[in-house]
Write a structure and sequence with these properties.
alpha+beta, FAD/NAD(P)-binding domain, D-Amino Acid Oxidase, Chain A, domain 2, 2 domains, nine-stranded mixed β-sheet, 10 helices, 21 strands, globular
């Protein structure tokens, strides 16, 4: 494989992770990016890794729910999570050593806060389900314990359950993957891919907007919300749904404790390693029919601020540093959470990794590892992940 020209289109977190994992195995690649590394959603996300079994809540969701998943896909989905979740601390050290980037890794327990008797009942039921399924890292804290951590929390708070989270700074993490890959032989270049060259069922190269043609033995698409547009140039358009995600980066007068807070309305407060705070909203959807819309809105900004103040009133004194917004690539209805990882069925040497929704950062290491192994093996999945890759394969979709 080291003698083959592997082109990765897209230098977001998924593309950079694929390049990093290929390079770790001595296989160089060339990454082509229209903007710059991590310039879009990968550089603006919350960049938190949730405890994977938390996602088991998605098993019973109705088909049109935001986090619904096809039957039989939850276990493979979680396997992708686990491939990254337990490796993240070591990868943080590796990126600092090889890429020279401190990605601001840190542990960040999340507290789901109950503000009413009904909230408490619901959260304890979720905690019980997780424990019964064999996951015991989450635990309940009462009102006294909660207010010992956050004395200034809304007085109505009556406790909550705590689950492990990890965090990084998103742009530094994406850049760290890229620079580590580059130190090990990968090459990054700017350019907009507008077409493909092919012979029979093999792609032989790509065409840039400048007219330049770049030869390729393998082509990998990691183009996020643009995946539909890009695959349409290869004959069949991948169905995607575009969601606009927004969050706020805040400066607080006093550093918050290293615990994220989440309300029943899913408003989320995330203290970062550098002392800043991210305000977001888990589970909200703002679906778009076009990629040509404003990335931020005043309505979203005010909702995020007001919902966060409802949890922690002293955030009214925080200062807005940056209003972040960008597009995520979702699966279309009826199932919104259905990542696509594998070889494009109509092409012998083309691969795609996309439709990760809000979870691209969390799935980046697992997806990068599996894609690298798949490419190196010429499209054959490793035996230990054969079923997982079959479930997530583009060949399982209706095109």
């Amino acid at each position: 494989m080291s003698n083959k020209e592997i082109l990765i289109i897209g230098a977001g977190v998924i593309g950079c992770s694929i390049a990093y994992h290929l390079a770790k195995r001595g296989v160089p690649s060339q990454v082509i990016e229209r903007d710059s590394i991590g310039a879009r959603a990968s550089g603006k996300s919350w960049a938190v890794w949730t405890y994977p079994p938390h996602s088991l809540r998605m098993e019973g969701q109705p088909p049109d729910d935001l986090f619904s998943m096809p039957v039989g896909s939850v276990a493979p989905f979680l396997q992708i999570f686990w491939l990254g979740y337990n490796r993240l601390p070591d990868v943080a050290l590796d990126l600092k050593e090889k890429g020279g980037i401190d990605i601001e890794y840190g542990e960040l327990p999340r507290i789901d806060v109950a503000f009413s008797e009904n909230d408490e009942k619901t959260l304890k039921e979720v905690l019980s389900i997780m424990n019964n399924q064999g996951y015991h890292e989450a635990y309940w804290i009462d009102e006294k314990e909660l207010k010992a951590i956050y004395p200034d929390i809304n007085p109505l708070a009556r406790g909550g359950f705590v689950e492990p989270w990890q965090q990084v700074e998103p742009y530094r993490y994406t850049l760290g993957l890229a620079q580590a890959a580059e130190k090990m032989g990968a090459n990054f270049r700017q350019g907009e891919v507008v077409g493909f060259c092919h012979k029979d069922s093999k792609i032989t190269g790509v065409v840039l907007a400048t007219g330049t043609e770049i030869q390729a033995d393998v082509v990998v698409l990691s183009t996020g919300p643009w995946s539909g547009q890009v695959t349409s140039k290869l004959g069949k358009e991948l169905p995607v749904l575009i969601n606009l995600e927004q969050c706020l980066r805040m400066q607080v007068p006093k550093r918050l404790p290293p615990y994220a807070l989440c309300s029943p309305k899913l408003a989320t407060i995330i203290p970062k390693v550098n002392g800043e705070v991210i305000l977001g909203h888990a589970g909200s959807a703002d679906m778009q029919t076009s990629l040509d819309v404003s990335l931020t809105t005043d309505e979203a900004k005010m909702m995020l601020i007001n919902d966060a103040i409802d949890i922690l009133p002293n955030l009214s004194e925080a200062k807005l540093i940056e209003h972040r917004g960008d597009f995520e690539c979702w699966s279309p209805p009826p199932r919104r959470s259905q990542p696509v990882v594998g070889r494009l069925p109509q092409w012998d040497n083309a691969y795609i990794a996309t439709r990760f929704g809000t979870m691209g950062m969390m799935m980046s290491l697992g997806a990068g590892l599996m894609m690298a192994e798949l490419i190196i093996a010429g499209g054959r999945a490793p035996e230990r992940a054969r079923n997982m890759m079959e479930v997530l394969s583009p060949a399982k979709l209706e095109w």
